[in-house]
Design a protein that fits this description.
There is one protein chain. With 311 residues, the chain is mainly α. The chain has one domain: Up-down Bundle (Na+/H+ antiporter like fold), CATH 1.20.1530. 78% of the residues lie in helices and 0% in strands. It is globular. The N and C termini lie close together (5 Å). One of its GO terms (cellular component) is plasma membrane. Its main location: membrane. It comes from Parasphaerochaeta coccoides (strain ATCC BAA-1237 / DSM 17374 / SPN1) (Sphaerochaeta coccoides). Belongs to the auxin efflux carrier (TC 2.A.69) family. It is found in: Cell membrane.
Amino acid sequence: MELDSTVIFGLLAKMVILIALGMVACRFRVISQEGQQTISRLLLSIILPLGVLAAGNSTFNPKYSNNLLLTALIVFAYYIVAIGLSLLMGRLFNPPGKKKGVFVAMNVFANTSFMGYAIASTLFGHEGMLFAIVYNLLYNLFMFTFGVMSIEGNGASTIDWRKLVTNPLTISSVISLLIFISPFRFPAMVTDSFSLVGSMSMPLSMILIGCWLSDIPAKALVRDGLSYVISLMRLVCFPLIMIFVARHFAISPVVVGTCVVITSLPAGSLNVIFAQKFGSAPDFAVATMAQGTVFSVFTLPLVISLLNHFF
């Protein structure tokens, strides 16, 4: 696998510019808090689901079916290992109160939707998008079960299966995969419309992240040592472990690339949303997500360079 360096740095430059635009827009009150919530709902309910459906309309290739299953196995193994290591680290560092559960969850769960889909589709096209869909299905499964219980800090908490099953991204992901393996395809006009809407995910996601960053004082990004631990695990350790293990197996470079790149992303926004909902160290969650997002601009090119070297 050889990813063109100009594509990589072009993508990162776009990310930085769009994030900066989001920060400026929020500082000058062009985008309000209500506007941020509207953009988030649009992304999660319409824009990303339609982009996912467009990917399912790709031309079927039998080798993709095996690779989709392989992606599921890799991601499932990642979550088992990541949860185990993060629980051990939670005991080692022992953050106070509910902060411990947030620490564990933010170690495990990356920004797989807002950033993951955009980066996977940009680097690997529709094939990468299909593997990102599988990644996100397992993300939703683990996030809405283990993740919610961890952040809430209540081991007896009941799992809200309804939210998991009725999540628009979960529904669109299942439909997309069913379409992909079936002979059915949307008409070209429908697919083009879905793709057009889905292409909005990259700019809007980055602008929204910029809005989140604009509300955080710079000192909040550097004052909590646990945030550095999460950034180190998320942005460096977990992708390096995945690269090391994948080198010993004959796996499609696009499968490895998609899984590694998504795994190397910063802690995701759902961690923050649930932390705010349950009153579980929300300031720590926001600052940690923001710090990881800033650091990822520098670590992501390094991870991609390693992928180019080893695969």
